[in-house]
Amino acid sequence: MGAVPSGAADYAGDGPTQSSEESQLPDVEAHITGTVWKIEVEVGDTVEEGDAVVILESMKMEMPVEAEDSGVVKEIRCSEGQAVSEGDVLIVLE
After folding, report:
1. What does the alpha-carbon distance between residue 28 and residue 53 come to, in Å, rounded to a whole number?
2. Are strands 28-29 and 34-39 parallel, antiparallel or unpaired?
3. 19 contacts 57 by C-beta, under 8 angstroms
4. Is 45:57 a contact under the CB 8 Å cutoff?
5. Hey, where are the domains in the chain?
6. What angle (nearest 5°) sits at the alpha carbon of residue 12, between those of residues 19 and 4?
7. How far, in Å, are 30, 83, 89 from residue 58 at the CA level?
8. d(CA 15, CA 47)
9. pLDDT 10s digits, 8-39
């Protein structure tokens, strides 16, 4: 016979609670077309928002690709020396 917390009724039936889409972290994507120069993480590593996870090389310049969210590296979808296009998924976080 627990009491209903104040305001709890306001949330009942207002739509779905956090969906799997909302709770899923965004993939880390290439922001330029270039070559993967160096991968800075391994599967299982914990990264913080803003950490460089991959270094791309384009036109003789090194461009870090940073994680947009904190998380754990679930999958690495690129390899050093691989050519990538803008928007390609490089790292999957969970």
Report:
1. 8
2. unpaired
3. no
4. no
5. 32-93
6. 120
7. 11, 10, 17
8. 32
9. 444 444 444 444 444 577 899 999 999 999 99
Give the E-state strand segments of 1-94 in sequence order: 28-29, 34-39, 46-47, 52-58, 61-66, 71-76, 83-84, 89-93
Report whether 86 contacts 32 (CB < 8 A): yes
Q: Which residue has the tokens 């270094």?
A: 55
Q: Cα separation of 31 and 87, whole Å?
A: 6
| Other residues' Cβ atoms within 10 Å of the Cβ of residue 57 | 15
Secondary-structure class of domain 32-93 per CATH: mainly beta
Quote the tokens at residue 21.
């889409």
> pTM of the prediction?
0.73
